Amino acid sequence: MLKLDGITVCYGQIPALRRVSLTVEEGELVTLIGANGAGKTTTLRAISGLLPLTEGSITFRGQSIGGAAPRVVLGQGIAHCPEGRRVFPQLSVRENLEMGAYLRRDHAAVKSDMERLFHRFPRLQERLQQAAGTLSGGEQQMLAIARALMSRPKLVLFDEPSLGLAPNLVEQTFAIVSDIRREGTTVLMVEQNAYAALDMCDRAYLLESGQVVQHGTGQALLANESIQKAYLGA
Ligand SMILES: Nc1ncnc2c1ncn2[C@@H]1O[C@H](COP(=O)(O)OP(=O)(O)O)[C@@H](O)[C@H]1O
Ligand SMILES: [Mg+2]
Description:
Shape: globular
Family: Belongs to the ABC transporter superfamily.
Domain ABC transporter: 2-234
Structural class: alpha/beta
Protein name: ABC transporter ATP-binding protein
Largest sheet: 6 strands, mixed
Number of domains: 1
InterPro entries: AAA+_ATPase, ABC_branched_ATPase_LivF/BraG, ABC_transporter-like_ATP-bd, ABC_transporter-like_CS, BCAA_Transport_ATP-bd_LivF, P-loop_NTPase
Bound molecules: adenosine-5'-diphosphate, magnesium ion
Keywords: Amino-acid transport, ATP-binding, Nucleotide-binding, Transport
């Protein structure tokens, strides 16, 4: 479904990703793990069209999207739930959700999708008119996830959805990501919480200094001794 083929991405002259290749098949939950600064966020930003490629290509459902503008990538069916949540703080919860659907013209369906999301995120419904910046961290994360879903994506990119959340909310967030996949949406998730990420995914890639150094099933990576030592605190 998604294929990154040898992509290099630079900030100025300095490469943050070097010839990264990865694939995500339809229906999969794939995770990208790695230390701080490994290039995980850069990978997602390159897929979303927020960063240009220096080399390599990105294709989604057979179409080239490398170098495409963010709204084009969104229009193809890829939603990005960014690191640090990044809701629009001055806008209300409702307006944030509407922003997620800004490319859609099926307004009646947008409304019913929003109603359906409220079953999963009842707190958002209670706070519809509240400015998003005044929500708690956990509520903002739920809003960021719900906003991404409002585009009816085929693939969702999650960037560290558990970051900065209390332990009970971390669990809840991972449960929501798993539900989203179970309902048929493909997921590529970046996580620093390597144990949880490997345990819940189908396949995983390990990034070190901008390069893919390991990939395999989540279970295989969990069983890998060098990964256990470096990333799982074994
Ligand atoms: N806007 C930027 N300008 C310059 N360098 C950046 C920028 N964003 C990230 N980097 C660098 O690129 C590398 C990868 O960063 P990032 O993708 O954010 O890593 P991760 O998400 O895995 O923590 C790091 O060395 C980081 O310092
Ligand atoms: Mg990051």
